[in-house]
Amino acid sequence: MNKLFLNIPFFIIFRLTCCLGILKFLPKYDQRLFTFTDLGEYHGIDLGLQPIDPLYVLFVKKIGYTLENLYDFKWLVVSILLSIFFTLPWIVLANKILSPKFVFFYCFLLGIHPYLSLYSLKIETGLFAILPVSLLVFSKLWPYSKIYKISLLTTSFLSLMRNSLIPMGWVQFLYTIFLKKRKEIGIIFFISLFILCFSSAIQIPYGMKYLNQEFGCYSFSSIQNWFSLRGFSPLFSNFFSFLVTPFIHLFLDLGAREAISFYCLSLPNNIANNQIINYVSTFGFLTLHLWCFIRLLKFCWLNKENYMYEILIPFSMLIPTLYGAAHLRYLMPLIPFLLLMAFIPINKKFKKEISYLK
Q1: What is the residue extent of each domain of the chain?
Q2: pLDDT in tens, 270-282
C-alpha cells in the first residue's frame, strides 16, 4: 500500500509534466494546438432527433463546456483531474501484479505517453471508456476483488457517454451467458442488460451512419479505387478491399493521429510542419502498440487454460473501425492496458504463478 501511494504521485508528476510540455511546444509543430470539433457538434445535437452519446451531451451542456472555453485554465485542470482519476485503477492493478521496479516504469510510461497526455487536456468521450476496460481487466488479473459484479453495469452505463463501448458490452453479455457460471447472473446483470439494450437502440442510427462514412485515402472505397486503378476487375477490387481494409485500419488504430485519416500520411504543414516528427511518431506509436498487442495475444495463448482470453473483450470496441473511420483516438481507452502488457512477464514461470486465476 505504501508503494501504491508513492507510485500515484509519480504518475501524476509525469502526466502533468507531459501536459505542460504539450501546451508549450505542440503549437510549434501543429498550429492548431489541439482541436475538439466534435464538441461543437455535441452542443448542436437535439437529443430528441439524434441521440448520440446522450449522457455526454447532457453533461457538457450542463457544465457549460464549449469550444469557446476549451483552453480556459479551469477546464484544463478539470480535464487533467478526470483523466488521472479514470486512470488510477491501472496504477492499482500494476501495483498488485508487477514488481516494484516495473510498476515505476509503467507509471512513467503511462504518464508521459504523448497521446494520453494530449487527450488529458480535454473532456472527451473516450475518457469515460478507460474505466470499463480497467474494471474488466482488473477483475480477471486480480480475481480476489469483486469488481466483476459491476463490470458489465459500468460498461452499459458509460456506453451512454461513449458509444464505442456498446460492442464491448454485448460481448461481455454473451460471454457471461455462454461461458461464465450462472451464479454471476443476478439483478445487477439484468439492470446492465436493460441499460445496454436502451443505449444500443437509441444509437443505432448513428452506428449505421458511422459504418457508412467514407473519407480519406484509407477508406474502403479509396482502397477499392486503388485496386481498380491497377487493372483489377470491379469484382476482384471489391473482394481484395474487404480483405485488406481491416488490416490497414487496425494499423491506423494503433498508430495514426486523426488528421492522417483525412489527409493521408503526409500531412499539411499547418498540421505537421515537420514531416520527420510526423513519420517517427506515427510509426513509433504503431511499433509500441503493436508489440504490446502481440505480447497480449501471446499471454492469452499461454494462459488459455485459465480463460485469460476474457481480457481481449475490450478490443471488441475496435471492430466497427475495421471498416469505418479508424485512427488512434479509438485506441485511446485501450492504451493503458497495452502499456501494462509491456511489463507483464510472458513466460512459463509467470504462467504457473497465476494458475489460480481460473
Answers
A1: 213-358
A2: 888 888 988 999 9
